[in-house]
């Protein structure tokens, strides 16, 4: 196990190590607008992750409406959850090109559209496309920027900030469960989804709050993280000027980028003696299009180059063996948390506990305790004498134990106790961005965390349908929890093995050098 964050620092050639102390930090780092970013991320978690945790309500409505098997119907929820996370690496490309703010706003519109179109579903397969894919992609375009922005704005209190922002998942699961239950009872599930789509438009407001950092805001010990938008704009303008200048149209050394460009375009139109005012207007329009296209081309090329180098270049994230073990863990972990949320309402119905569950739903118990788990684990991890990695591992051990014992509990009280432990231990989700940043550094956080949530997405995509398929075969959910728990344990073992190997290698090298 790691004793400190420095132990899991990883060099990518930019000399950015974990534990590097910021030099002259801007007031927006760990304060100021940073707390608005936390608020924005908190609301995103309520509207996206919280509503996905409440899909068990809609799942029961879909089973009754469409008369399909549990395995097939569960694909709707799992597609939405899975695609939200699976698109992470590709959303990293959007962030590299457009920035977090624009990506999140576009995602908010797409998510709302998915909810609204799902209100008109005629069968389960229609929901696969509208709710699973459309709403899922939109959710992913908002979720990743929300996590990345918190990591960029915080240095000293990063774990606490991530913990506070991700408590939105717990609040959202509690609020959205009650809201969707009320809406389905009063208006029916179709109108409930339409109303939820209107509520989801608030994601655009959350995206607008994600103000990008300027170069002076992030100053590390070895390098300065520059604003992509400013750099792209400067290169695009210079590239555009050179392109048009090669045609003999522009004069030399323009004083102002905007004014000079307009004047030069007007001069060029005067020199073009093709005839007619309409032809001159077309020439101006063509030159403006040329400038816009050249700017867009440079932006896309630079964004793609950054994205590609992170995955396949010399500084590839996959050269970090501990990070690869982290990915393997993520492939098995998330389904163990998602399966109870999707299938607990059915389990309660099977055990004839519906009357007690209606008073205080078990999913709400998970959601409420989940809030405290994230905050408390975040505070503990920020203590100087405590290793974030060790807290992360202990929470994982607790969660996998609860998943394996849940099928043995058949009374409401015992189920409530296990659900409370699941809620608290799953608070480690707030530590995932912190652990990821410790492994790869701030510069690679967007792409690295995109890979991690992509692996989580695959787990969420396959977990609930697998549990439904096992139920269709055995008419019990027991084996679903046992199998998912064992796979989860395999992932934890990978996390334990790889750090030992990583720490052992330098010692072996030093022994060989001593012998020589």
What does this structure look like?
The protein has 516 residues and is mainly alpha-helical. The protein has 2 domains: 27-213 and 300-307, Up-down Bundle (Growth Hormone, Chain: A); 317-504, Up-down Bundle (Growth Hormone, Chain: A). It is built from 20 helices and no strands. The protein has helices at residues 34-53, 55-66, 70-86, 88-98, 100-118, 124-153, 158-187, 189-200, 202-208, 228-245, 257-271, 277-312, 321-350, 354-359, 362-382, 388-405, 412-425, 432-440, 445-474, 478-515. The radius of gyration is 26 Å and the shape is globular. Residues 1-23, 215-274 and 501-516 have low confidence and may be disordered. It is found in: Membrane. Keywords: Membrane, Transmembrane, Transmembrane helix. Pfam families: MFS_1.
Task: Record the SSE blueprint.
Blueprint: H1 34-53, H2 55-66, H3 70-86, H4 88-98, H5 100-118, H6 124-153, H7 158-187, H8 189-200, H9 202-208, H10 228-245, H11 257-271, H12 277-312, H13 321-350, H14 354-359, H15 362-382, H16 388-405, H17 412-425, H18 432-440, H19 445-474, H20 478-515
Helix pairs in contact: 1-6, 1-7, 1-9, 2-3, 2-7, 2-13, 3-6, 3-19, 4-5, 4-6, 4-12, 4-19, 5-6, 5-8, 5-9, 6-7, 6-19, 7-8, 7-15, 10-12, 11-12, 13-19, 13-20, 15-16, 15-17, 16-17, 16-20, 18-19, 19-20
InterPro entries: MFS (IPR011701), MFS_dom (IPR020846), MFS_trans_sf (IPR036259), Proton-linked_MCT (IPR050327)
GO molecular function: monocarboxylic acid transmembrane transporter activity
Organism: Stercorarius parasiticus (Parasitic jaeger)
């Amino acid at each position: 196990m790691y004793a400190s964050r420095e132990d899991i620092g990883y060099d990518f050639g930019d000399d950015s190590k974990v534990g590097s102390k910021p030099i002259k930090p801007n007031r927006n780092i760990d304060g100021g607008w940073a707390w608005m970013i936390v608020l924005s991320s908190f609301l995103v978690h309520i509207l996206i992750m919280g509503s996905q945790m409440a899909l068990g309500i809609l799942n029961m409505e879909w089973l009754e409406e469409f008369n399909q098997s549990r395995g097939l119907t569960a694909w709707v929820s799992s597609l939405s959850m899975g695609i939200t996370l699976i698109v992470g690496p590709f959303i990293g490309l959007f962030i590299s090109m457009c920035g977090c703010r624009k990506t999140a706003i576009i995602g908010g519109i797409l998510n709302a559209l998915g909810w609204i179109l799902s209100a008109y579903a005629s069968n389960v397969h229609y929901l696969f496309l509208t709710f699973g894919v459309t709403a899922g992609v939109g959710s992913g375009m908002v979720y990743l920027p929300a996590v990345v922005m918190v990591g960029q704005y915080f240095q000293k209190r990063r774990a606490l900030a991530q913990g506070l922002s991700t408590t939105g998942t717990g609040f959202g699961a509690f609020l959205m469960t009650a809201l969707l239950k009320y809406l389905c009872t009063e208006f029916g599930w179709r109108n409930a989804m339409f109303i939820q789509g209107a509520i989801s438009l608030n994601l655009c407001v959350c995206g607008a709050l994600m103000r990008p950092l300027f170069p002076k805001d992030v100053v590390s010990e070895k390098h300065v993280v520059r604003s992509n938008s400013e750099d792209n704009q400067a290169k695009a303008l210079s590239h555009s000027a050179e392109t048009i200048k090669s045609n003999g149209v522009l004069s030399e050394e323009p004083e102002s980028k905007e004014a000079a460009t307009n004047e030069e375009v007007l001069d060029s139109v005067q020199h073009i003696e093709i005839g007619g005012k309409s032809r001159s207007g077309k020439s101006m329009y063509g030159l403006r299009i040329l400038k816009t296209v050249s700017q867009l081309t440079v932006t896309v090329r630079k964004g793609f180059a950054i994205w590609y180098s992170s995955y396949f270049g010399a500084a590839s994230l996959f050269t970090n063996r501990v990070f690869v073990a982290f990915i393997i863990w993520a492939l098995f972990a998330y389904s163990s948390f998602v399966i109870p949320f999707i299938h607990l309402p059915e389990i309660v119905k099977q055990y004839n506990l519906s009357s007690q569950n209606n008073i205080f739903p078990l999913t709400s118990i998970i959601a409420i305790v989940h809030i405290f788990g994230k905050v408390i684990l975040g505070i503990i991890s920020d203590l100087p004498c405590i290793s974030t990695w060790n807290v992360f591992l202990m929470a994982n051990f607790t969660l996998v134990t609860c998943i394996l014992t849940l099928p043995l509990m058949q009374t409401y009280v015992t189920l409530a106790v296990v659900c409370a432990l699941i809620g608290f231990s799953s608070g480690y989700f707030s530590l995932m961005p912190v652990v990821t940043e410790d492994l790869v550094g701030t510069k690679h956080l967007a792409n690295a965390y995109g890979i991690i949530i992509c692996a989580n997405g695959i787990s969420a995509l396959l977990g609930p349908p697998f549990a439904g398929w096992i139920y269709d075969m055995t008419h019990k959910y027991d084996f679903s929890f046992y199998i998912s728990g064992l796979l989860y344990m395999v992932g934890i073992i990978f996390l334990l093995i790889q750090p030992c190997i990583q720490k052992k290698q330098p010692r072996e090298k030093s022994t060989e050098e001593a012998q020589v």
